[in-house]
Amino acid sequence: MTLDRLEREITKCRRCPRLVEWREQVAEVKRAAFRDDEYWGKPVPGFGDPDARLLVVGLAPAAHGANRTGRMFTGDRSGDWLYRALFRGGIASRPDSISADDGMRLTGAFVSAIVRCAPPANKPTAEERALCRPWLEREMDLISGVKVVLALGGLAFDQVMRILAGRGLKVPRPRPRFGHGIEVDLRPKGPIVVGGYHPSQQNTFTGRLTEAMLDDVVGRAAMLAGLPTG
Fold first, then answer.
1. Percent of the chain scored above 70 by pLDDT?
2. Which H helix or E strand runs over 196?
3. What average pLDDT does the segment 147-165 reach?
4. How far, in Å, CA of 204 to CA of 209, rounded?
5. pLDDT score recorded for residue 1
């Protein structure tokens, strides 16, 4: 198995009828601002450096973001925030992620999500999260050099911790609660898991997450992963 082959498998997935219907409906109807775009309308694989030491995990593709562009955190405001932070941290080659062919490169990092299809109202069900979990697990198997997982949002944090616990790693009991900046050190057999608020508009518009806060958590995760920063 290679990342390229896994990517092809992911894009063919039809496990969740509700998500399949929604992602394809959105791709057909489109948003007026993108009416001339050809929407991706399929599950979205991860993106980045196959030799990554830092794995960034979000929730799911945005309906008119990654579901349109075909690349994680690309074409929406959440992605604008994330890639600007990665750029300022010396990880991304450019500060804006516009399309899958914009030349963006990540050094030492890989960006993924716990759900691969755009969910209605950005709320995948527990069953959908469970059905999608194997895709992230298989990416983690193939990106074997990961030292740090930056989980953006509570659902991503919980799913990452669930996956690592399922691999026999000694996760603290009770399981740590998500919070911005929380760190769970599972070394030497596992990674360090860092939690951060998701750069969704719900967080950025209200000031719950600022660019300085996102820079801090990205920089901390990169430093723990041993990546050159700045």
1. 100
2. strand 192-196
3. 98
4. 5
5. 81
Residue 98, classed as helix, strand or coil, is coil
Question: Taking Cα atoms as reference points, which of 187, 192, 133 lies closest to residue 163?
Answer: 133
Q: Is 230 a member of any domain?
A: no
Rg (CA), the chain: 16
Q: Is residue 229 in a domain?
A: no
User: For residue 198, what are the domain limits?
Assistant: 3-224
The amino acid sitting at 82 is L
- Look at the chain and count its residues: 230
State yes or no: pLDDT of 229 exceeds 90.
no
The CATH number of residue 118's host domain is 3.40.470.10
Residue 24: per-residue pLDDT: 97
- Residue 16 belongs to a domain: yes
**Model confidence pTM above 0.85:** yes
What is the mean predicted confidence (pLDDT) over 196-204?
97
Separation between Cα atoms, residue 142 and residue 133, nearest integer Å: 15
DSSP of 122-190: G---HHHHHHHHHHHHHHHHH-TT--EEEEESHHHHHHHHHHHHHTT----SSPPPP-TT-EEE-TTTS
Q: Is residue 199 part of a domain?
A: yes
Q: Are strands 47-48 and 109-113 parallel, antiparallel or unpaired?
A: antiparallel
Q: What is the pLDDT of residues 54-93, one digit of tens each?
A: 999 999 999 999 999 999 999 999 999 999 999 999 999 9
Number of domains in the chain: 1
Question: What is the C-alpha to C-alpha distance for residues 171 and 176, in angstroms, rounded to an integer?
Answer: 8
